[in-house]
Amino acid sequence: MTPNMIYALMIPLMVFAIWRRVRGSFGRQPIRRKRMMARIVIFAVIGVLLAVSGLHNLKLLEGLLGGVFAGAALGTVGLRLTRFERRADGADLYIPNAWIGGLLTVLLVARLAWRFLVVMPQLQDPSVTHSGPAMGNSPLTLAIFGLMIGYYICYNAGLLVHHRRFEQAQAVA
């Protein structure tokens, strides 16, 4: 596969992932416990894999860990700003803070676009492709990935805990 074919496949996949991300950050969202638990596991596995791959360069690992801790703090703030409600049919919903979701989306898209613009000319040069600049070979990029990982692990775990409390409070009322 040529690099152009790879980009022809990756760009639509990234657009779809961003569209799903934006759709899930705004408005009422149904509580789906199994999906939330799966997200926690997936993001934890991705975080561990990135941490293991960052062991060869401590700056990359520091960027990732700093992002994870900042993401966990942001996830805690996001939980405080999230509202829960129940529809008439009994379905539980949560309303995430649109500002935090929008900020994370813009930050991720901007960093990936910037990194893509920096790496793309290097990929066009045949002499550089053997040493291969990596898309995630930057502490800032890994910090932003860590921010997303820490945010989603903390936020989804917190949603599960708060939803259980919300159910208990609704049962009493």
Features of the shown structure:
single chain; 173 residues; three-stranded antiparallel β-sheet; 5 helices
Distance between the termini: 60 Å
Global outline: elongated
| Major sheet | 3 strands, antiparallel
Series of secondary-structure elements, N-terminal to C-terminal: HEHHEEHH
Uncertain runs? none
What structural category characterises the helix and strand content? mainly alpha
**Count of extended strands:** 3
Write structural notes for this entry.
This protein has helices spanning 3-23, 33-53, 58-81, 98-124, 139-172, and strands at residues 29-30, 83-86, 92-95. It is mainly alpha-helical and 173 residues long. The protein has a domain at 55-173. Strands 1-3-2 form a three-stranded antiparallel beta sheet. The protein is elongated.
Summarize the structure in short:
The chain is mainly alpha-helical and 173 residues long. The chain has helices at residues 3-23, 33-53, 58-81, 98-124, 139-172, and strands at 29-30, 83-86, 92-95.
Question: Helices and strands in order, then pairings?
Answer:
Blueprint: H1 3-23, E1 29-30, H2 33-53, H3 58-81, E2 83-86, E3 92-95, H4 98-124, H5 139-172
Antiparallel strand pairs: 1-3, 2-3
